Amino acid sequence: MSTCGNQTHIGTDFAALQISGDELLANLAQLKDVGIRDDNFLQKAAYEYQYSWGVRGDNNIHNAEYLGYMLGKNLYPDLKGTSMDEYIQELLDESS
Question: Nearest Cα to 79, choosing from 88, 71, 87?
Answer without folding.
Answer: 71
